[in-house]
Amino acid sequence: MTSSLFSRWARLLAAAMLASSLLSGCGYNDFQVKDEATKAAWGEVVNQYQRRADLIPNLVNTVKGYASHERETLEAVTRARAAATSFQITPEVLNNPEAFAKFQQVQGELSSALSRLMAVSEAYPNLKADTSFRDLQSQLEGTENRITVARQRYIASVQDYNVTVRKFPTNLTAMMFGYEARPSFTVENEKAISTAPTVNFGK
Q: Can you tell me the distance from the alpha carbon of 147 to that of 136, in angstroms, rounded to the nearest whole number?
């Protein structure tokens, strides 16, 4: 290898190392890590909401067997589930406040409908004693708890990401590469979701 060729490779290597150092120093690599973290946390939120949605058809059918005349309540749950499951969850939701707010809305409406269904179910002792129903209510209770935990983890992840977007000097990197603060669950919505539907019929 000639000295000129060696010198050229040395300069290229030095430039690459400098670029890597600058990218690391300005927070570019941090953005990659935190972007993946928020996506993973969001994926868990979606998974738990889907788990809840999957429980609802069997729950509705079981309640219907004992309280078929509670048609309005049963239909409200079915409609709310349909709206929640038809919402298109794409990666863009994380960067779109309007879409994120819509996601919160449909999930909140489903939580509200489930709460009403559980309140109605209290009036039916035979339903409360049904083995299938008790198993479903246990699964639903566990899922609601998982939703709460997943949401809390997502909120923490987004907060960490958003601080990086806004603070100096990483805010310069954010502007350069188009990273923007991401929406999170609102205080009002978080308060509503933290009150899980009453599903304990063992009393």
A: 16
Q: Can you give the pLDDT at residue 174?
A: 87
Longest C-alpha distance within the chain, in Å? Answer: 90
pLDDT at 195 over 90: no
| Nearest C-alpha neighbor of 44 from the set 165, 178, 161, 148 | 148
- DSSP codes, 76-99: HHHHHHHHHHHS---GGGGG-HHH
**pTM assigned to the model:** 0.78
DSSP state, 91? G
Please state the length of the chain.
203
What distance in Å separates the CA atoms of residue 59 and residue 196, rounded to the nearest whole number? 16
17: which DSSP letter?
H
Q: Residue 178: left (phi > 0), alpha (psi -120 to 50), or beta? A: left
DSSP state for residue 183 in the 8-state scheme: P
